[in-house]
Structure prediction request, 442 residues.
Amino acid sequence: MKLLGMVGLLLLAQAAAAARLVAGPMAGPPDLRSVGLWLQADGATRARIETWPIDRPLKKQQVEARLQADTQFSAVLRLTNLEPGTRYAYRVLLDGRPAGDIQQFSTQPLWQWRREAPDFTLLAGSCAYGNEAAYDRPGPPYGGRHEIFDRMAGEGPDLTLWLGDNIYFREVDYGSAEGMAHRWAYERRQPYLQRLLHTGAHAAIWDDHDYGPNDANASFVLKGEALKLQQRYWANPSYGLPGTPGAFTQFGFNDVDIFLLDNRWYRDSDRLPDPAGRRMFGDAQMRWLKNALLASTARFKLVVGGSQMLFKSGHGDSWADFLAEQKDFLDFLEVTRVPGVLFISGDVHRAELQKLERPGRYPLHELTCSALTSGVYVNESLRDRPQLVSGTLVMGERNFCKLRFEGGRAERRLQLQVITADGETKWTKVLSAAELGAALPP
Prediction:
């Protein structure tokens, strides 16, 4: 009996010491045949993901990875040899034991040359502040209304774009790689995030607060560590190019190509006394973007960045502070007539739709989505701007944007909405493909 008791105590101790799933799983953007699934445990363990088509449960496949301390017990496991347009179920096992509920993801359908582009829903948001009292600044908590993430999950998005400031490094964090790693691990395991992380696919770009200090630029000495953490905690399809590091990437989602821009790695200081020479994105990244846009055959092209891109107004960064680089790109769009371009940005703690008229060309629109849970403010002077689309300014409320791509080939359209943490739809605008310069040829 004494031996049995000792065995029982040993088994209990082993069970207590077993690693647990603390964040995720989260799917990155799927393609037609593969997907990356991110997850994190609280200790060293062997993670295995088993997956199967929901209508063929016996057709299982699996992939494994060792979760270790040097990656904060996190990993992106890549599932391959999948079938297009298929809904899959999957479960996570840690050291052979089931961890968490069964989740689902979908591969993209093979619709090209076969049928109409699928309708789908995309959500976008920026500025997600999670409170940690020991390291927050004195005063009322800066973060709030974290239930917005459940509200977003309830929309059933196919894809969520995180537009930067997806965490906020504190003064205690950005002085060391270890401090920055702590902030990511602390924020990502928060319970209020998990339902959204389980829903649809996710991709992210950064801004200053998840890159380094406030207003950080190319001089940040720990930017290499910041990039490692960006790669560790998101399942983007790629990061930069060989010989051109950074967080920028591009991927397709149905009839939309999405270009995520890195506005920090190559960025000059806004105060550099050389306005003509200042760069936000840098020559190599801009050359990539131009070529990628020209190579794209997608109906819609979303150019996504952490800072506002078309205009400068009120609080926040803008590409307009880098006039020579901005003008060069706008001139490129003018000359090449690239169709279907829409800009999406975050950062400024308000939501709005702006429009740049271009005589003889389709107007350029920029949708700004901010803030998810960080502080918000009201500045009445922002209501009177000629580029602001009437009725679209949302201030003083946490919010996210909803983009719905829908309709057949001839009447394809994009519905834009801004929704608050209370679930109130503040406004709805519909842009036809023709309004975005993406009308079908006669």
